[in-house]
Every structure is written in C-alpha cells, then in structure tokens.
Specification:
The complex is a heterodimer of chains A (about 220) and B (about 200). With about 220 residues, chain A is an all-alpha fold. Chain A is about 65% helix and about 0% strand. In chain A, about 40% of the residues are buried. Chain B is about 40% helix and about 25% strand. In chain B, the strands form 2 sheets. Chain B has a 5-stranded antiparallel beta sheet, sandwiched between helices. In chain B, strands 6-7 form a two-stranded parallel ribbon. In chain B, a hairpin with a 2-residue loop joins strand 1 and strand 2. Classes of the chains: A mainly alpha (about 220), B alpha+beta (about 200). At the A-B interface, helix 4 and helix 5 of A face helix 1 of B.
C-alpha cells in the first residue's frame, strides 16, 4: 500500500469514527459509562482518555497476534488483552495519580466492559494490520470522548454550576442558582443522550441528502 | 500446525495467559511501594486533619505525623493521640457499609468524648455528585468542634449547605443522598459508642 493511499485510509477511519460511524450515537456502544461517568468533566475526561488508550493498544495487540489466535478462543483472548491494558491503566493511576484514582473509584475497572473496545477488536482489528488498528481504536475513543464531554459539560454546568470544578453559574448567580439535582443522576444522561442522537442523526440525514461537498467522506452504513 | 486443533488451542491459551499475567505481576510489583506510600500518605494526612494538627504541605506530612502523633494500642484497635493547642485528642479509623460500598474514615474526639475534633473520609464508593459529596469539606467541616449529645450526632435534613451551629449535635445531610447520609450517621455514632467504651476502659489517656 502506498503512503498516500494509507493516509487516505487513516483519514477515512478518523472521519468515520468521529462522525459517520460514531461509537456512541451511531453504533450505540459504551452507553453504560455514558450514563455513569458524565456528571463532571474531569472524571469524564480521564475516563475517556483511558478508554481511548485501552482501545488503541488492545486493537494494536490483537491485530498483531491475529494470525495466531485460534477461532474457538478468539473472544477469550480479546477479553484477556483488553483487561490486561485496563489493569495497567488502573495500576498507573493508583501509583502516579492517586487523587484521580480515588475519584474514579470502580469506574476504571469497568472500562473492561466497555463495548467499544470489544466492538473495535471484532469489527476492525481482526481484519486489519496493527498500525491502522491502533489508529482506529484511538479515533473510536476520540469519537466517544467528544460525545461524552459534550454531555458532561451540560450536566456539570446545570447540576453543579461549574465546569471542570471551576464555579461558573454558581459564581455568576450566587445563591439564586439552584442546582438541577436530576442532572447529577443517571436519568438526565438518558434524556441528553437521546436528544444528542436525535439532533446529530438528523444533521447526518440532511448532510447525506445535500450534494456531497468536495473531498467529503462518503457516508457509510452503520455497524450494529 | 492446525490453528483450530484442540492441542494448539490449549497451548496457545496457556502461553498467552502466562505472558500477559507475567507483565501484570511485574507492573504490580514495580508500583507496589508507590501505591503503599500513597495509601500511607492518605491515612496519615487524614489522621492529622481529623486531630486538627496543622501541616504545611504534602511533603511535611510524614515528619509532622512522626513528631506529633502517638499510636496507642488499646486491645485490638489502634488509637492515634495528638495534642492540638495543649489539649489531647484521640482519633480512630472506622469503616462501615454505605449505599454502594464500604466507607473508610477517621473520627477524632477529645478525651471526654464530649466533642468531635474532626472527621475525615479516607475512601468511599458513593455516587460522584450525590453520596460522594460526603468527602467535600462543607460536609466534613460540620463535624469539627461539634458537641456530642447522649444520643450521638444527628444527621438531619437541613439547608444542605452545612450546619454552622456546633452546639446542637446536628449536621446537615447531603441533598439527594438520604441513604448515604443515614449510613454516615450510623457509622459516626457507632464509632462514638466505641470511643466511649474505650474511654470508660481508660484507653483515652
């Protein structure tokens, strides 16, 4: 494969994962953590970085050992590799960022159950070389991060009146600001996620209907 | 070799597991001391804060702790003693179940168990933003200097912003976290009872 063609593929993967085939609002994967960790931006950011790295490295490793993996134990090996990287992330956080590790608590371990990682391992890393699989995993993580950060921004702003722990609304309005307790709890993530899916998918539909812009990526069917 | 034969599958699984587990064990071993040091730092700084012993920064925790705090062994438990402003105070670790997991903390009192000196949370698994707010300073600071009534300390539904009266033996619960607040009340009062028992046995000296 020539260098130019390779770059083309990397670009397609990036745009697909961020937009046309976004893991959250198109593939509807990783929803459990979307509901659980998005009530403040700091935790969301660290969690999504963790997911991006875990997805990238496990896709890379799995793509590299693909030709040796017996079909029967394929999924067992995938889970093994994924949990390996997640535990490494957990160990690094506990040793070097104890405060973050404390505030994320059990959520780091739950990265293992994030369906995006397994989804990319099955859908992409199985049939692609290691480097592009790494890129695919990383950009899938970014697609996930973008949606979660947007939801977390709304939830933290209305639920706590702050952004990244820095008071914004509560500073501007003082005692007149009443936190929306519902925004801190899981139900609000359902509403916000549904609204985001509705809005973004409608936008995609209208983009598909419009004449394609020069150089734009072709829309693709969503993987389930 | 046939990739789908049973022998290959078993051998492959075995080798792959051994390989990854080896690196996990290695990573765990390399960071073991660092993790233990972090844990000790959290515990020691919590004990100091609960006892009201000031320390300048994170680096001075160990030296201040070793200079000021005496570890007394009373039966099977360890009581931490320090004097702040000439008054001896006693702290003990407590733990108990809350909504999602175990809360682990420190409660410090005076020698008569008449007032709380301070409360600190070492670890918890409560919902961030709801029950997790027990680790915020407005909640913990309510306990500082609070009078202990015969029935202990009541966690009641208040303004949710913190109870400034240190004579009423009452603190505000966390809004939206009634159950976690109730569990905290049970834990704190259980610990007060344990400290009273120690006092009656002459353990708080």
């Amino acid at each position: 494969m020539s260098a130019a063609k390779k770059r083309g593929k990397a670009m397609t993967v990036l745009i697909d994962n961020l937009w046309w085939n976004n893991p959250v609002f198109i593939q509807i994967l990783g929803i459990c953590s979307t509901l659980a960790v998005t009530n403040n931006l700091t935790n969301t950011f660290i969690m999504t970085v963790g997911v991006s790295l875990a997805t990238a490295f496990s896709s890379w490793t799995l793509a590299g050992m693909n030709t040796f993996i017996p079909n029967k134990v394929r999924m067992i090996v995938q889970v093994l590799v994924i949990s390996f990287y997640v535990i490494i992330i957990d160990i690094v956080l506990r040793a070097y960022m104890p405060d973050v590790s404390r505030s994320l608590g059990p959520y780091v371990g739950l990265i293992i159950t994030n369906c995006i990682i397994m989804g990319r391992a099955e859908a992409f890393a199985r049939s692609n070389p290691p480097l592009i699989s790494f890129w695919d995993g990383l950009t899938s993580g970014f697609g996930y991060m973008a949606v979660l950060m947007a939801i977390a921004a709304v939830r933290e702003l209305l639920g706590f009146g702050s952004l990244f722990g820095i008071p914004v609304l509560s500073a501007a309005f003082g005692d007149r600001f009443v936190p929306w307790t519902i925004m801190i709890m899981a139900p609000s993530a359902f509403f916000l996620l549904a609204l985001a899916m509705w809005g973004l998918k409608s936008l995609q539909e209208s983009m598909k209907a419009a004449p394609p812009a020069a150089g734009g990526a072709k829309p693709q069917g969503s993987a389930k | 070799m046939n990739r789908n034969s049973t022998r290959y599958t078993v051998a492959f699984t075995f080798i792959v597991c051994a390989f990854f587990v080896f690196f996990l064990a290695l990573a765990n071993d390399l960071t073991k001391e660092k993790v233990a040091a972090n844990r000790r730092f959290t515990e020691r700084s919590s004990v100091l804060r609960a006892l009201g012993v000031p320390f300048a920064d994170a680096g001075s925790v160990d030296s201040v702790y070793e200079k000021e705090v005496t570890e007394l062994t009373a039966g099977s438990t360890v009581v931490y003693r320090a004097s702040a402003e000439g008054v001896p105070r006693f702290a003990r670790f407590f733990s108990g179940p809350a909504l999602w997991g175990t809360v682990f903390g420190v409660l410090a009192v005076d020698a008569e168990v008449g007032r709380v000196s301070g409360l600190q949370i070492v670890s918890h698994n409560e919902t961030p933003g709801l029950g997790g707010r027990i680790d915020e300073s407005w909640f913990k600071d309510q306990f500082t200097g609070e009078r202990i009534a015969d029935a202990g300390i009541r966690v009641r539904q208040g303004s949710g912003k913190g109870d400034g009266d240190s004579e009423n033996a009452e603190v505000d619960a966390v809004t939206g976290a009634s159950l976690t607040s109730k569990f905290m009340e049970t834990m704190v009062n259980g610990e007060i009872a344990a400290l009273r028992k120690l006092r009656d046995e002459g353990g708080l000296k």
